[in-house]
Amino acid sequence: MLSVCDVIWLLWVPALCVKVWDETVDHVLRECLLAKAIWRVVVQPGRLEEFLTLPYTTWLEDNLRVSFDFAREGENWKERFDVFCWILWKHKCSRIFDNSYVQRGDLRLCCEKLSAKFVAAFHHSNVTQVVRVNSVWKRPSIG
User: Which UniProt keywords are present, listed alphabetically (predicted)?
Assistant: First the structure.
């Protein structure tokens, strides 16, 4: 259950983050006021500082493991974490590249709904194994 403080934080903070210099992935996913507001609601209060201060690579690796659980409530932290990161990244890109973009509704709620759909689809699929593909991004020859 969200406190009044949590609701106020989620409603007002997104408009406050206007960092336009030295933008990093770490800023978008952890340091941005919007990201912190979302993590503050979904991460266990006693583990929030640890969650936000782990070295970036460790943070990603630990949260992508099924057994590593920072969640305040619920299950499927790995899947929820994946979706939350994707939504935060998509939101930031939309604000930068789409001049007509307007945030509609609570991003945390959007994340929760999408992750629930993702988990349900995954559990109902016939996926028996995960194939890991090692690929490296290569700069295009043009552009």
Answer: Signal
